[in-house]
């Protein structure tokens, strides 16, 4: 057994960031994920620097532990092949809009007809019972729709997006959770089901728990937005020689901090004595922190704050994180020889399991690399596979050596 989901078969019809992140988390836990791609391949194959076309860094990180099958789902033979595979699959995941799935004959009703026990999980922009149901959606659009750029603007400047695909990845995690719970229920009842994971509603749930704030009450008894989160001085603090992240948060933290910085009387000030007062006056405290931390070096503050048991950490860049002593000790960043891409740096599986420990089993696949292998595992004969290849309904990938030759590298 490799991972708690060992033996779970997933047909993954997703592309870009959100869906592949969801299936990545399931694949890392041991699920057997068949990444079903068009002849053009997942769009993320073309993003970023690469040694070979179609094998960019975003794709490599999102699609390890999966195998690639190229199917033309618009062709009669390719569509029929997927439905046949669905008979023995546990999960079908997709990120197309539901109407596109209906046109392909792959709606929940269509797939349930061949496999009543399947978990059919859709990840798309908007809930299907609202006026935005048919709209396309991407991470930036959902961030904007939920108000994230406005929340960012209260810190500084005009509305701005968060500098990572936060909506895609949050919704992907929600989809992973939903699929896992649906599988758990099926273990109890034997029943499959449809699971819908809309981006707009899911990301709103994620953001508004912090920022509905005064509008939680009817009528509202204050403004929206958690003040501490939006304050422009909530940031890493400059020291004499670098930056640090510090969370002076609970009463004891502040009491110790005021004492360490030579102003113990501030702990008795009603503006700062408890979390309610500090939240109302957080701007004053952040300004104070900013002034104080510029007076010593990072090493000095690390020693002082650690001694006072106040949460602190040195600020990393993505590059310096590679040499972070904790990350090095736990082995989070590893190296793996890819059949066509050479030596790659890998991201570790964060959790630790006492049993059924998951592993990095497969590097990210070349386009169509496992088409023949997967069809055979799903019960197609050699003759049937040859027919699908001949008709163009299926495309098989090249070997590593010929892949490099075809890419021009």
Describe this structure in words.
The chain has two domains: 9-206 and 329-407, Rossmann fold (3-Layer(aba) Sandwich); 237-314, formyl-coa transferase, domain 3. It has 19 helices and twelve strands. The chain has helices spanning 18-28, 57-62, 76-86, 98-103, 108-114, 139-146, 148-153, 166-189, 199-211, 227-230, 251-260, 275-280, 282-293, 298-307, 318-321, 325-330, 371-377, 382-391, 400-407; strands at 9-13, 32-37, 66-71, 91-94, 119-124, 193-198, 237-238, 243-246, 312-314, 333-338, 342-347, 394-395. The strands form three sheets. Strands 6-5-4-1-2-3-12 form a seven-stranded mixed sheet, sandwiched between helices. Strands 7-8-9 form a three-stranded antiparallel sheet, covered by helices on one side. Strand 2, helix 2 and strand 3 (66-71) form a beta-alpha-beta unit. Helix 1 packs across helix 8, helix 6 packs across helix 9 and helix 8 (166-189) packs across helix 9. Residues 399-409 have low confidence and may be disordered.
Indicate the topology.
Elements: E1 9-13, H1 18-28, E2 32-37, H2 57-62, E3 66-71, H3 76-86, E4 91-94, H4 98-103, H5 108-114, E5 119-124, H6 139-146, H7 148-153, H8 166-189, E6 193-198, H9 199-211, H10 227-230, E7 237-238, E8 243-246, H11 251-260, H12 275-280, H13 282-293, H14 298-307, E9 312-314, H15 318-321, H16 325-330, E10 333-338, E11 342-347, H17 371-377, H18 382-391, E12 394-395, H19 400-407
Parallel strand pairs: 1-2, 1-4, 2-3, 4-5, 5-6
Antiparallel strand pairs: 3-12, 7-8, 8-9, 10-11
Helix pairs in contact: 1-8, 6-9, 8-9
